[in-house]
Amino acid sequence: MPRVLIADKLSPAAVDIFRQRGVDADVKTGLSKDELLKIIGDYDGLAVRSATKADKDVIAAAKRLKVIGRAGIGVDNVEIPAATAAGIVVMNTPFGNSITTAEHAIAMMFALARQLPQADVSTQAGKWEKNRFMGVELYGKTLGLIGAGNIGSIVADRANGLKMHVVAYDPFLSPERAIEIGVEKVELDELLKRADVITLHTPLTDKTRNILSEENLAKTKKGVLIVNCARGGLVDEAALRKLLDSGHVGGAAFDVFVEEPAKSNPLFGAENFVATPHLGASTVEAQENVALQVAEQMSDYLLTGAVSNALNSPSVTAEEAPRLKPFVALADKLGLFAGQMVDFGIKAIDIAYEGEVAKLNTRPLTAAALAGVMRPMLAEVNMVSAPAVAKERGITVSESKQDESPIYESLIRITITTEKGKRSFAGSVLAGAPRVVEVKGMELDAPFMPTMLYVNNEDKPGFIGNLGALLGEAKVNIATFNLGRLAAGEDAIALVGVDQAPTEGLVEKIRKLPHVKEARTLGF
After folding, report:
1. In which order are the strands placed within the sheet that holds 89-91?
2. What is the largest CA-CA distance in the chain?
3. What's the topology of domain 3-95+285-306?
4. Is 3.40.50.720 the CATH classification of the domain at 98-275?
5. Which of 192, 303, 331, 395 has the smallest set of CB atoms within 10 Å of its CB?
6. Secondary structure class of 149 (helix, strand, coil)
7. Single pTM value for the model
């Protein structure tokens, strides 16, 4: 009988699911790290919320562990790379608390609009300062959503019910899906210019970190209200405090902070600031939903091998796994390549399979490719949720297959259609390793490296020397260097594997080199 350690509090109903399904569940909450290290080696599964930290030490001690289940969305308390290296599946429950989090954002919006926390303190102090707390109506105001996924779309629905006008910035939101959820799709600068209230509903990634930077905050309307119930780090807290004090920002309400628990913060003490201690998912209903879901998912995996909402594992059968494994890796990395190369709203994704790979079960490969494409903007997307997330955003996903490939035994090609046109990327598996073999119609042969430079340039003499000189001056070591071009003197690309991540300043210098059209850093 599999054994699961429930290290954070789950409802009795969730514990019963384990036991009724034939899983031995031990409830031991509030363990210190040393206590956890002593006993984790006896368990096949670990169920947590956010208190227990499944770090590399815990994972190293967990010799029997097969699955970690997080009752909730965020997995900041689980070291996924260490779990993956140890062959441990990490699961979350991405949809169990969406309504609760959306409702909290709406509540924070009302709290700001009517200054409810400040008015409560004043009234209970016996001051009766009726003239001090002049609020604003939300009716007829423009709400700007940054992120229009599952939670954002629920907020949009509630805001439409309040007769607000909703505009949304989300690179993955199609025009058709925007109409369906009742929002006007806009670019970020347009949202900043028009919104009376801004709410954030996006994960924290390299692309979304400080999306409301000092520069972007300065573009907002005077008196704007800002609500963040998503992730700490999406807003420059110090810059926001300055604008609160100056009166440019009319008020802000945060449920999440860069450092948590937030014992101190630049925003604390501002007269027009409302704070809650990460309560977005804190309702009886949400906590029950995610607890039941994680119990069901973990039991299914331990008893049947079925994988649901896994952040680091494809949904494949035991028989398919050996053949699919290298192609899953290729699809994921090729998708991640494509996702980092696209800066505009995605309308469609087509995955074409040629040769022997077309004869395999391509569903997990398509899911891996979709997850890779969307991961730069949606860090928590996984192979299981990726198709649903794409559908939710109105992205058209298509597959095509042909039994033979002109050059390679197997080839996968991903074509992204955006509002600005199409981009295509192809890869193959050579000697068991995934490689890029075509970008923008140009053939090359490049391995995926942890950090890479992509440069699109005109094929002119001196380019390679100039690029190498810049990297050398910055003490960035070149690990691999692969080139492709249409023809002599025409469009060309360079994919450079580097040992040190280039700074944005270095990338900007590369962009200014003669004949360079585009340059960016890629991570794998």
Report:
1. 24-27, 3-6, 45-48, 67-70, 89-91
2. 82
3. Rossmann fold (3.40.50)
4. yes
5. 303
6. coil
7. 0.73
